[in-house]
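Two folds, back to back.
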Amino acid sequence: MSAEATSPGARSRRRGRTSIDLRRLGRAALLGPASRDRLPDAIGHVADAHRAHHPDADLLVLGKAYVLAEMSHRGQFRKSGEPYITHPLAVTLILAELGAETTTLTASLLHDTVEDTEVTLDQVRAEFGDEVCYLVDGVTKLEKVDYGAAAEPETFRKMLVATGNDVRVMSIKLADRLHNMRTLGVMRPEKQERIAKVTHDVLIPLAERLGVQALKTELEDLVFAILQPAEYERTRTVIADRATTGPSLDTIAVDVRRTLREADISAEVVIRPRHFVSVHRARLKRGEMRGTDFGRLLVLVGEDADCYAVLGELHTCFTPVISEFKDFIAAPKYNLYQSLHTAVAGPDGAVVEVLIRTHQMHKVAEAGVVALGNPYAPVDGAEPGAEPADGERADPTRPGWLSRLLQWQEAATDPDTFWTTLRADLAQDREISVFLADGGMLGLPAGATCVDAAYAQHGDGAHGCIGARVNGRLATLSTVLVDGDTVHLLLAHSPVEEIRGDRGGDGTGNTRDAAPGPSPEWLEHARTPAARIAITGWLAANPESLKVPAAAPRTPGTVTAGRRGMANVVVDVPDATVRLAGCCTPVPPDTVTGFTVRGGVVTVHREECPAVGRMTATGRAPVTVSWGDEAECRVTLYAESFGRPRLLADLTEAIATAGAAIVSANVEPPSKQRVRHTYTLQLPDAAGLPGLMRAMRDVPGVFDVRRAQHEPAS
């Protein structure tokens, strides 16, 4: 399969530009520069493309880089038989056409010198400076001799870490892969498939995340032709036999131009044909293709406000398809993309998609981070490190997804784990934004849950997460978040917090009560690699958490009421079974007394409990009772409140925030606008009961919280 056959649409993207014969340029490259005071003829096209975006660019450094690249690669040939210098020339031309700045082009000319020739990084640094040296080093592969089978994943790890410091590293890598894919036809089929698979799994998602749509769409088509040749040929046939059903895009474009002209809106309306993969997806989604399904209308205007003016005219003069409207100007996508998307229907029902953006938005939409030039250069007249005047952060090339990737890759020390996790992470091709209770914001992949949000916000501190509140309502940790949700994560006290708060440390930096940790079930709800790696690491370091603890032998005369670790009492009756009365649920330091009931069981009551008076009246002798050493306890509380929406959610959140666990709860039907709640709660320390009751009383609508004082209704 030839490179031309796998590059559909390439000719239309270069309409109006003289075609470039890389073979001829390769032969010219062997001759070197014609003179010292002019650029070599071989990079004339690069210079023209570069000057089109940067009229004042200094081209002498490009000539110097070309001379070094040509001399170092002289005598090397590609598998296609062309001089090797044609490859760095082609990569540089791709970047120049996208608008890359001079430093990036210099590094792209030299990107294979350190890897494939005798040139060293020290030489590159001495000749071209630290920036160019860093970029060249970032795209240089690791040797298989040193890394074996791990060379490819470790090369990508190295490249991604370098991209975290300078995004131009990945720009060069994407252009490099694009030219290699264009000329992949000379490779063996199995090698073509392997390279195409890596491109599909890793590099195309990275191009999407960096917003370089011009490279992403062509890479998609090239991969499509290799991995799905039958579907590719079918799609090519569909495009060749373009459907003529209904009006064409040209007809609707004329109507749109006339509408905007009559509204006195200056705009450029162009037709953007869909690339092969886009046509393939549309055909699978819609079945029979109509003439308007093979492209979109692109409306380019001067200012942001003009975008909305165009939108208003289109929705007024045509029938809008409301479900297709998206505003990526007010809420840009995570890859810097901005545009208005809509779809309108003509009088005959033909629907056409319309993209509305400014010329600058269009430049960024096509070239992504490449269009930013050098994002690390200081703003003219600004202090170093100062924010730009428009309020945007100085480095928009370190988005949330890249920060998350760099974070979790540190924990994935095994190359296989890193490679598998990287592909899985990049396969999540959509991102959502959720807001935090403190006003911050998190970027998460679509499908993320509260577990993922906890680890994204708190790192390993999320091991102590006990719940979440989503949009004001209590939610389970498995709750899937959607774009725009507000999340408040509830954490148990961590060991660090206990040490700082003198919550029972032994003076050695340890605490008597360990913080809670994640359960294995959390792995079923975690979608982000950071969360999965952290949970897996904690479970591996705490294998005892996977085991069911053995029951300890009961001490005579002592009872732990209910679950492990609850408050206990000691009675002055040998071998007696003791239980805490459910009518008053005594807790330390309540004054308590006990009575022997059927079966020799000693029931412990608070002294003010009505049951004590009844027992005494029947002549039963009290039993001496004292509290044991354990702090945990169980208590039943009644909360009286006025009925209102979300009252139960607010009450249970107050209980969880106070560190209590709900054993059981009952809400009676409203009566005269009043509601009675009954909660049986497990407290880590009885001393926290007054604070818990105050927190419950502070919930709006609650007018009384009290302990149980009488026999509960059966």
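---
second:
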Amino acid sequence: MKKIFTFLLMLVFIVSCKKENSLNILSPNKQIELVFNETKGFLNYAIFYKDSLLIKPSKLGFEFKNTNDMASNFTIDLFETTSSNSTWEQVWGENKIIQNNYNELSVSVHERVQPFRKMKLIFRVFDDGIGFRYEIPKQKLLDSLLISNEITEFNFNKNCTAWYTPANFDSYEMLYQYDSINHIESANTPITFKTEKDVYLSIHEANLTNYAGMTLLTNEKENFSFQSNLVPWPNGVKVKAKTPMVTPWRTIQITDKAEKLIASNLILNLNEPNKIEDVSWIEPMKYIGIWWGMHLGTHTWTLGERHGATTKTTKEYIDFATKNNIQGVLAEGWNTGWENWGKKGAFDFITPYEDFDLKEITSYATSKNIEFIGHVETGGDAAYFEDNLDKVFSMYHNLGVKTVKTGYAGAIQTKGQFHHGQYMVNHYRKVVESAAKYQIMINAHEPIKPTGIRRTYPNMMTREGARGMEWNAWSSGNPPEHHTILPFTRGLAGPIDYTPGTFDILFKNATNRVKWNSLDDGSSRVNTTIAKQLGLFVILYSPLQMASDLIENYENQPAFNFIKDFATDWEKSTVLNGEIGDYITIARKDKHSDNWFLGSITDEEERELNVELSFLDNNKKYMAHIYADGQKANWKTNPQAIEIKQKEVTSKTVLTLKLAPGGGQAIKFSPI
């Protein structure tokens, strides 16, 4: 990590001509301006972009259950501005080097009336948005806090449109909706907006630590306004805290093009640096697994004739991975307890079914240089898992297992707790920290949303937190536009374990399916073309990237060569084009070779996109290995038509990508 420069400007008071107690700070490129005001004892902030008001004055403060609110009667004590421009290197990620360039305003305030309590607000203004947080220092008569409401408002100057999922305290697995914000009652974050002047914003949070997850609730007292709505404890309290206390950063990304949202590193930059000294064991990889068959209903998690995770089948997957440049194999349902689903203590997490030999499998995987990926399903019994963390992780560590997938399907069994409240936020963090002690990487399902913690704990590799591939196996599935919305919404928060790569799109080879899910009406299928399935490997970023289909559907399939060749760790990434809900094209350079990979996808509309290859090295020729939608390909009527070809290109080449309805394209560029 290299610090380029940092300098302080102490007590620079910029007084607005309009309001008496006003502090202003600009982004480094001077395009974004944040204005902080103390008006008649109330605190608020406003945001301008290119001199136009985006967020009008929005209130700040707290309401408490056990003491008087901190929402009024404030006066400014002192403030300071600082500027920083530095770079740091990711252990893994979309880009190897991250620039962290911002101007900061730190404001200390106190109450004008007894007991004169103190609070600090910190605002960081980047070229691509802002982050702000509260700090309540340790002080007399203010030790323990029970926060009943965080008074953080986001008051838009005008009506605009947004892509969102309604606020849900237990799940993010919903399709995105599109509406004007005056019609939105609540929302999970990230939520992404577009103004009438084509300015794009996304509201989220960074460094969610020992605090409740934030959702948004419409503010009925203001037009076009949202207020933070924290996920509560069973007694209604939102956050239990001790002073000194810091909140997560509230983030607002701001750009003039949709694709710039994806290029932003604002959320990562607002997290603490890596705390794991030795990171040599943390390695991105591709994996396959015994998983999709259970969702299809061709196999079961439980013991029986159709049991998926047997020793024999897992060895077959390990052999396939060895032959096809796949680094990992996951097995779900290897351990007892699935037959007791929903009962407290149903899983002990370590006892195999009688047809699965865990020691034999891990030894066999090691002999083949394949990573066996462990699996812990809690069924929502997080407390029992937490009690057994050391037992579970030490077992895996002793077996040489470096990656574990966790799951929390169903309601949290601790009465009254939600997946996204402070109790579970702390649980998810404890799992990651405990896993790090045993040199184990985590892939979390039914998780808390990502907020950039992967920078601090880079063993937090990927997580679900979105409506993923499995919904196609037992419901009406994910419509074509879903994948063109995810990168601009949920994808802004961090990696997604979406698990693309299903080739048997119409389930023609799944002849012995058994219905097990009430959402399955018999019409289930994958709503893409095969070429789009390949494009999703590039578009939906994950350092642990799964090829989700049954291995028999990859045999003798030329399209699988793209997955075999695909990398998982990147030197740099560039978003070439994109409009939310319509299309997107991304190119990524492999960190460990000179190869580039490109993915392009569309919604239900057929598209023709011209793409300049200026990201390639100027002095090299490349062979483009192209996997495109075939003639008359269509996600509805002809999803498996694919054309595979090669073409010599340079950085001066302009490629025309022809995308079928619900289709896509994937390209590997290798130097000649």
